[in-house]
């Protein structure tokens, strides 16, 4: 299957089909932004060149809307911003919210009960995202690092249950213990079906919980087909982690980054160089320019 996808991508790279790409959807962290937390100059230049050829560019990220805005502005997008793994789709141009699929309050309570079990609580930092604000139990070192990279101000509230009069857009459990994050993923996928909740990892230390209607593939499909009247073959997506696999699988050309986990790379038509080697720029040059 992977060889077939690679072959298709290779053939299309030298054919007129490349001209059919009308929408380029980019992940942020690990894709267009690396250790510097900035869009690399070569990537920005390649994006501008793609736009000059008439290709529209969108951002699809697990980040908060407010955290993703600066990347959206830097790439010069005019399309809605796909934030929170696609749970929240809003246009910065006219402030219109196109989609918001939050986690139910009942489910949020269940998740909190699970994460606060005695054997887990001291190892996890829990983040609730409500109304594009970040609420936490307390400020931990993990939360501080997250806040610095994201450019957001976390709001410590002690017992997170007191903010659950509203539905969270997303729930995030952070831990430096990568094995624990994997255990959470395995355990909760046994407790809940995909029709009940969406679980993913955006990085090895982030376990994310969202509405079952949410993933980047669904969001990109909505943007492409319902908003722009395009088909999958008109779409190119670039991403680097497990929260990107659905959009890589959806697109006519799905590009996995060289720094992506091996399993994630199998979902791409092609594997680009790593983010620190300007892999997104190389992919844009290959398939669009």
What is the strand and helix layout of this fold?
Elements lengths: L1 H12 L9 E4 L14 H12 L3 E4 L5 H11 L5 E3 L4 E3 L6 E4 L4 H11 L2 H4 L3 E6 L2 E4 L4 H10 L4 E2 L13 E5 L3 H14 L6 E4 L4 E5 L5 H12 L7 E5 L5 H6 L2 E4 L5 H4 L4 E2 L7 H9 L2
Parallel strand pairs: 1-2, 1-12, 7-8, 12-13, 13-14
Antiparallel strand pairs: 3-4, 4-5, 6-7, 6-9, 9-11, 10-11
Helix pairs in contact: 2-11
Describe this structure in words.
With 289 residues, this protein is of the alpha/beta class. The protein contains eleven helices and 14 strands. The strands form three sheets. The protein has a six-stranded mixed β-sheet with strand order 8-7-6-9-11-10, covered by helices on one side. Strands 2-1-12-13-14 form a five-stranded parallel β-sheet. The longest helix has 14 residues. It starts with a helix and ends with a helix.
The total of helices stands at 11
In percent, how helical is the residue content? 25-40%
Low-confidence stretches: 1-18
Query: How would you spell out the order of helices and strands?
Result: HEHEHEEEHHEEHEEHEEHEHEHEH
Whole-number average pLDDT?
92
Q: What's the number of extended β-strand segments? A: 14
What is the terminal separation in angstroms?
27 Å
Label the structural class: alpha/beta
- Rg, rounded, reads 18 Å
Q: Let me know the largest β-sheet.
A: 6 strands, mixed
Q: Identify the strand order in the major beta sheet.
A: 8-7-6-9-11-10
Shape: globular
Strand content: 15-25%
